[in-house]
Amino acid sequence: MSRPRSQAEYLARLVPPSVAGLHRRALLAGAAGAGALLGTGLLAGCGTDSGADAKTVSLGSNQSDPKPKDVIAKVMDGFKTSSGVEVAINTVDHNTFQENINNYLQGKPDDVFMWFAGYRMRFFAAKGLTGDVSDVWGKLSGYSDAFKKASTGDDGKQYFVPSSYYPWAVFYRKSVWQQHGYQVPQTLDELTTLAGQMKKDGLVPIAFADKDGWPAMGTFDILNLRINGYQFHVDLMAGKEAWTSDKVKTVFDTWAGLLPIHQPDALGRTWQEAAQSVQQKKSGMYLLGLFVAQQFGDDEQDDLDFFTFPEIDSTVGAKALDAPIDGYMMARKPKSPANARKLLEWVGSKDAADITVKNDPSTLVANTGADTSGYTALQRKAAELVGSATEIAQFLDRDTRPDFASTVIIPAFQQFIKDPKDIGGLLTSIENQKKSIFTS
Amino acid sequence: MRLLSRTDRVVLTLMVLVPLLLVVGLVWLPALATVLLSGTDWDGIGPLGEIDWVGWKNYDDVLNIYPPFVPAIQHNLLWLAALFVVATPFGMLLAVLLDKELRGGRFYQTALYLPVVLSLALIGFIWQLIYSRDQGLLNAVLGSNVDWYGDSNVNIWAVLVAAGWRHVGYIMLLYLAGLKGVDPSLREAAAVDGSSETSTFFRVVFPVMRPINIIVLVVTVIESLRAFDLVWVINKGRNGLELLSALVTSNVVGEASRIGFGSALATIMLVVSLVFITVYLATVMREGQR
Amino acid sequence: MTATSTRELATAAPAGHRRAPRPARVVLHLFLGTVAIGWLFPILWAVLTSLRSYRYTAANGYVSLGGWTLDNYVTAWRTAEFGKHFLNSVYITVPAVLLTLFLASCVAFVIARFSWKVNLALLGLFTAANLLPQQALLIPLFRMFTEIPLPAWMSDSELLYDSYWGLILVNVAFQCGFCVFVLSNYMKALPHELYEAAMVDGASIWRQYWQVTMPLCRPALAALATLEVTWIYNEFFWATVLMRTGDKFPVTSSLNNLRGEFFTDNNLVSAGSVLVAIPTLVIFFLLQKQFVRGLTLGASKG
């Protein structure tokens, strides 16, 4: 695959094939959406007699950590300044938010709420649980086609406004690597050789944690992308390929071979603890999202560096990766549709992105028009990495059915980490459950 | 009941009916609905009219292709066994020891049942500080490297220690109350007969305590069946900590929303609970009739 | 009814004979002392951890001394907005406890006052409800709550879902069983002649309940109230699933706000845990007698 020239082009490859063919229809839908806006605008006019409501809009936020919470507050302050509409932010702990999302959307959700691009976003859209925001997209600028497609539902309309994204890569401390003279590995063999050297130097080669069940998905994703390529990965996630196939078995065999260079007892460790072992220079490297930077002090940010997971099969290459997109969606029946749309337009704007860049060093903004001169070296490099990727996956639990991811994959991966010997039995069990879930 | 006036009848009806409606509406009807849902493949989204009936398929899946099910049953039984064999007798022993007039007895009692007032979620947090592999106290003190919450060979035991920690206090309290109710003259009579303290307890006191013994037993069974908060706070009941309640929750509450499947698990749990609840009520009420 | 004797539980042991300290007694004290300290230890450890700075413990490990600070409490209070959430807990707990006691005492009164055949079934129905696994009832309950509208002045969600009302009702429904059970047993132990006398005076059923039975049940009610406050305050599951607005969460559930997705600070979480535990601990120490009696009433009924 040739290397694309512009970031827009790189990002164009991030679209799942199921939506890739849709953009002509999307344009039409956009036009229809604009018409719908006029209609809803009128309705909104009727509906907002209560007066007080006209100047507020509610936002469901899953950003409960102090730093991101603060950033959201600043972005929303910016909205108030620019539009005069007050945002009532409803912050719920991240895990609770995600767990309750079905109930939340079927109850009385906030006018606008935070969510991710991917299978789940399209699923909610298809079920009519979230609002069509195609008309908002008509007013947004600075987004590549790729982001627009990632925001598009199965029906060709947009349901999502991206705000930020972050790549998954192998992170390490420059100072540690300099001290031992390590080189970034280009192939799997180089990686295992490097790991052997690290062991000799008294380091745990690869930090690893899977207490919460999701971090190991990152390892599976990258191995599957490297061994079988993006298309197979997407098809596997969509339930179209069999987990009992030799291709999947190869992934697990490779993974089993790598487990000895991973931190042992991963199932009792949170990713924070694993990240701290890197921070404390006990582990050599760690495959995780860019958010790993949050576990490092301000003075240590410059010491943090990363490389993309090395090539395993030269015919597949090493240009695909996980880079999940976070953003905003609209409730199906917001209390004040006009304000909700205004807010979505704001969070998708360059100005909002600028505020985020200034305040949050652990994420990348989706709007290409944003002033990224405030990026740290790490952020700049991360943006380049995503830019140079040929295909981008959203992460296992965003790329497949959530019931499959949480009730089948998590226990299965944990079982594998605990006992990597019986791969055949494990894959048969996954496949049996997959069939039952995907056919229901 | 001819003595009741019409107003009395209305009042009586209301006194029973209002609470009854609340309990039936918010507990029993949902329980029934869960049983019905277990025969469907509903994903929790959309109107009830769209539900498809799938018969016993969910139960079939639970039994045949759902790997966590068997471990969950085993862990529930292990939980029961551990509480029953260790925590409950220990609580009873402490109650017997504290039943003597002891200086500082009040302090001991307070210390022992302090954990009972804490929420189970809080207990999960508190023990995490001790068990954490890299930051916990236990490994630091022992110089060991055991992954107490993560290693599926040990984590159930680690959690049982925390669960037992709370359970002992509870049982001690129940039993102590029972012991205080034993007629002192029984013991004195036994003492006059030259019976040792131990044999007095087993030959005289223990049989008299029959109702309490049964209640303690049933409390233990119910607690082990309903165990949930602790493992949920620790790792959502996965990887060695599977429990029926946690499986139900992760299928139903989470993003997953396998309502039909989760309801089948819940129904299994309901049936088992009801068996023990019936035993409990039968015992308690028979005692109550005396 | 052995409740009479249990009432003395926390205060005095039955009159016994004082003996001079014997070796056996020393061993006993040693044993009980060790156990008691072992039992207190996890709580003390949490308190200790909460008083230390994260940076210090991250660098020196937890088995060290130093890094003392109260900052965790300040940060926890502010980050998790405990002030607001404590108030929410009050809004939920107080009405729920009062309502539970009132409704439960009504049913208990009927069960105890009359010897109808249905009484046993009624008692079973209530008590068993208290013991059912909550998870098993979630989905139907949730759907029900999202379908029942409330006027806007009652809840800004305009639904039973995400309202204090809904949470109060669920707690009442679940806790009623235990209280009915305890109170009906307590009331059965009251001499039946009381009612006969009251009937001779022409007292209505309501007056018999309110003026004869209830005043006599004060000790049981006080004990149950203490227990129920603790339980409903500690309730975690329903608040998490039946509330949507983070600002309306009671304090026990809001503790999760300290366990962020991307950052977990054990010391901060400890401080939060201690803050959440304080009300129950205060109640426990102030009303220890009531608490103990509440628990034992349920079990040691005669």
Main sheet makeup of chain B: none
Quaternary organisation: heterotrimer
| Proportion of beta-strand residues of chain B | under 5%
**Low-confidence regions of chain B:** none
Structural Rg of chain A: 22 Å
Q: Overall mean pLDDT score of chain B?
A: 85
Number of strands of chain B: 0
Q: Roughly what fraction of the amino acids of chain A lie in strands?
A: 5-15%
Report how far apart the termini of chain B are. 24 Å
Class computed from helices, strands and strand pairing of chain B? mainly alpha
Shape of chain B: globular
Mean pLDDT of chain A: 85
Shape of chain A: globular
Q: How would you characterize the largest beta sheet of chain A?
A: 6 strands, mixed
What is the largest interface, and how many residues per chain? B-C, 111 and 101 residues
Counting helices, strands and paired strands, the structural category of chain A is alpha/beta
Report on this structure.
The complex is a heterotrimer of chains A (about 450), B (about 290) and C (about 300). Chain A is globular. Chain A has 20 helices and twelve strands. In chain A, about 50% of the residues lie in helices and about 15% in strands. The model of chain A is unreliable at about 1-50 (pLDDT under 50). By secondary structure, chain B is mostly helical. The longest helix of chain B has about 30 residues, at about 5-35. Chain B has 13 helices and no strands. Helices cover about 70% and strands about 0% of the residues of chain B. Chain C starts with a helix and ends with a helix. Chain C is flat and about 75 Å long. In chain C, about 70% of the residues lie in helices and about 0% in strands. Chains B and C meet through helix 1, helix 3, helix 4, helix 5 and helix 6 of B and helix 2, helix 5, helix 6, helix 7 and helix 8 of C.
Which features does this protein show?
heterotrimer; B: 290 residues; mainly alpha; 13 helices; C: 15 helices; flat
